[in-house]
Amino acid sequence: MDHIRTIIGKEWADMRRNKLVLYVILLVPLVMTAIPVAMLAVMRQIPPNQSDLQEMGPMLRNPIFAGMTPSEALQSVMASNLLVLFLMMPLMVPVTIAAYSIVGEKITRSLEPLLATPISTTELLLGKGIAAALPGIIVTWLAYGVFLIFARLFAVTDRVFSVFVDPMWLIAMFVLAPLLTILAVNFAIIISSRTSDPRAAEQLGALIVLPLMILFIGAIAGFIALSSLTFWLTSAIVLLLNVVVAFLAVRLFQRETILTRWK
Amino acid sequence: MIRTEALGKTFHSDGKEIKAVEGLTLRVNEGEVFGFLGPNGAGKTTTIRMLTCLIAPTSGHAWVNGLEVGQADPKIRAQLGILTESPGLYERLSVQRNLEVFGRLYGVKDIKGPVERYLRLLDLWDRRDVEAGTLSKGMKQKLAIARALLHEPAVVFLDEPTSALDPEAAKTVRDFIETLCRQGRTIFLCTHNLDEAERLCDRIAVFRQKLIAVDTPDALRRQLFGRQSVVHLARLEERFADAVRKLSFVTGVSTLPGEGGAGKLVINLNDPAGQNPAIVQALASEGAQIQFVNELRHSLEDVYLSLLHPAGGYAKRGHNGQANHGGV
Questions:
Q1: A174 Cα to chain B: minimum distance (Å)
Q2: Contact call for A114 and B105, based on CB within 8 A
Q3: pTM of the prediction?
Q4: Average pLDDT over chain B, rounded to whole?
Q5: Is the terminal CB of chain A with fewer CB neighbours within 10 Å at N or C?
Q6: What sign for the dihedral angle of Cα A189, B13, B159, B63?
Q7: How many domains, in total, are found in chain A?
Q8: Does the residue A91 lie in any domain?
Q9: Edge-to-edge strand ranges of the sheet holding B59-64
Q10: Domain interval for residue A256
Q11: pLDDT at residue A107 in the model
């Protein structure tokens, strides 16, 4: 555990001194929180018309919105769909950090002295993974808290607000978001261990956001009904993937290849 | 302390087989400073990486501190200190933080004490809070040395510790390595700087994919060049050389003319201290005016080049075709 703690501490100390990473960690959640908050504020002022409700037809079939007034339904549906952004939030920054984690050490030539210590590959990758994932997860939870404060102010009724603290969203925020983050970080670390170019590592790492985009677009288009069951199932699949990808990350981290082939 | 038996490493790249190290058998004793010399691409860094458990040998065996490489790698790594070719510091972290990170990874208890001791020892204590990236090359190298020693390893591997340093920084680092030598640590030193190797190493190995020779610098000199006395004469005449040739213990004499008729006799023999008086006597009886006598000491560069290019004539002939008498 000491080794893992040391790596986490080192990574965070490094991040604190990297202003670019700090700005990204703060800016991305700020923008992603502002969008649904602004939408709630705007929709509170503008009453819905019939064409809006027709466009949202398939989404309104979700039982969570049953019995709502048109105004409540419009605000709930739109804000709920945008809450999917909160699942992307913890991925974007950690993926960038994790993708650079190994390849960055190689470029600065700090990897060889690091690998010459008694640290094991599992400890090294765990330390780097946790260091990359935790800031994303914590910032997401904070952003969700900030969103709830504004939702309390801008929701047209208590019924609308209750949608945002529905068990479905609590599962999404506190189970699925961390699991997705860990998956993304594991994936990014694999890429970082297999490529010698930091730009390639970051760009390939960013691809992990794509499946979430499908969820986001599917929810907006009404193809995917967001529910507790959807999130539990997704969480179970992601957990399974995490076990597989974590195992692969350790197997694919070839100290020798990294030291001798990368120039 | 370090032992290898037929150690080898072959890399495979684009379908080609590249033998980086072949059949390396050597022993480095406890408390010894062992110089590992060879040209670029000779396989020195690969050897260090195998001995520090960073890469696996493809043939043979190696033991460090009695533990076999490949069988107890984390334990071996915990007992080693390594200075890699490039300092490889965490440039955004402070000097002190860099050491603390590695101290913890090596399991050093009460890390603050050793960190302060080494930073003071290497004159870095006043810079402890600055980012490592802002240090000069020499300071970075000193910090990397401190990092390699924090956990008080019994064996230290130094890969090109003074390369890319200005003369002043190189001297500081070299002086510190001398301090380490006096502490009785086993030091495995890779260097291109032959003066450095001469000054620091108890024994040296000359290596290019395979081990070419290993011994003390003096023993290698003797093996390659034998022992030679140089007699400086106010006036050089062939009859003086003939007089010396008549002595039974002399195995060869060559003449080196100087300015104004002066010159030197270079005499091959076995025991300069015991045989020089007879030479002086023979020359004096011929009327030679002897200015002084000394033993010819070939530079380590001569030894190194002779070993690497045995057919190139470095041992017997210089680059210009003249007899190569090193520092005569």
A1: 32
A2: yes
A3: 0.80
A4: 88
A5: C
A6: positive
A7: 1
A8: yes
A9: B16-28, B2-13, B59-64, B67-68
A10: 2-48+69-261
A11: 80
